[in-house]
Amino acid sequence: MSVTTINILLFGIGNVGSTLLKQIQESRDFLEKQNGVVFNFPIIANSTVVLFQNEALQQAWETDFKRSSIPYEFDDILHFLKNTPLENLIALDVTASDVMLCRYLPLVQHGCHLVAANKKPNTADLHFYNLLRSELAKQNRKFLYETNVGAGLPIIQTIRNLYQAGERITRIQGVFSGSLSYMFNRFSVEPFPFSQILADAERNGYTEPDSRDDLSGTDVARKLLILARELQEPLELDDISIEPIFGETGTRLLQETDYRSNKQTLNRYLEDRKQELEADEVLRFVGLLDLEKRRFQVKLTAVKRESALGQLRGTDNLIEIYTESYGRNPLVVQGAGAGKEVTARGVLSDLLQISETVKQQKLAGFSEVSG
Hints:
Number of strands: 13
Distance between the termini: 22 Å
Mean pLDDT: 92
Strand order of the largest sheet: 4-3-2-1-5-6-7
Radius of gyration: 22 Å
Largest sheet: 7 strands, mixed
Shape: globular
């Protein structure tokens, strides 16, 4: 089997980015033998500094990054791409940054396919959303983002396949946040205050870099918006109704600069909600896309302990997809919806999908030349 080198421009070396690099290092021989690809990282960047390198990824890349990375502007990246003979380019965004939005179009115009764990580009306004897809089509480049919803779970691809096959999807609902699943799965049955469980979730890397994205409901709303747009629903983020988890007092705290030192303030409201539950009920943070009744909402909900949502454990997501063909019995996708390992593995799967496309394009080009 011939081997194709894929050059990856990595933006973000936090939990997911660093875990991905470790997974690729550990699987290098397998990936070459099984998939016929070698991943090279000519650019590894965080928000302030970048490492430019010409050699293959080293086991001690962190040492090289600390020793040899330099401050940069994004134009330095574009200059590097313009003046360095690299092909088979994938720009990989594993940040949670708004700043990356303005980088996607020029990266595509400089020959990059895109892979993103970052949800911001797919939940920006519809003008940018459509402009990006128009440019991708013009440049014949792919954009994959399976980990935007459900970490490593095949939710986006499943919904896309159903839609493209002409299936009429009527409703999608479930627990979309691995971090909030973890928190409320524990909070409903354990005696610990919510702030302590939240601290555990942050320490385990289950939350967004700023956990207020999770607690505000914005992260779940973004996931609903991404799925709605996969179904060609022209929605904006403001079209998703979010019922605050903590009431007005907690909502104000999430907006304050001293949030990190006052998380215990969140406890009282949720303790009151917990006391209101029936003996056979638990709390779950549920997202709903009801395409027939045009209801798009995110809210904390009491569900029966013996229901599918009530029996969730750990960081599990559970997504129910109701369609015309499936009738009253939904298609269910369930599994771990948070964690750096599963998210990084999902990103790697996207990279391999685009790598296969690159290989097929090169093979088709070779055949045309040969013919």
